[in-house]
Amino acid sequence: MMYDFRQLMFPPAGTLEGIERPDGTRLRCFSAGQGAPVVLAHGWLGSLTGFNLVTERLLEQGHRVIAFDQRGHGAST
Would the pLDDT of 33 be above 80? Predict the structure, then answer.
């Protein structure tokens, strides 16, 4: 299977929102789909766009996909 790695440059299609934390940190969160939830958490130096290559497949399988940018990564403060 060939991937178009340009997909990693942009947020996935779905609901993007900011979650305000009590300490003032704002976390960028993505969600899409319905069904059994799958939460995707990236590692060091990553962001939620790193999951773009698997998000579509998870949605096709009937999952709700939730991903977020860790503190200080991606679009999170």
Answer: yes
Closest CA to 40 of 14, 3, 4: 14
pTM for this structure? 0.82
Those residues with Cβ within 8 angstroms of residue 32's Cβ, 6 or more apart along the chain or in another chain: 12, 13, 14, 15, 55, 59, 64, 65
Kindly list the distances between the CA atom of residue 58 and the CA atoms of 10, 32, 72, 77, in Å, as whole numbers in the listed order: 18, 10, 26, 27
CA–CA dist 16, 30 (Å, integer): 5
What's 77's DSSP letter? -
Tell me the pLDDT of the chain averaged across its residues.
89
Q: How far apart are CA 51 and CA 19, in angstroms?
A: 19
What pLDDT, on the 0 to 100 scale, is given for residue 1? 65
> Which residues share a beta bridge with 6?
none
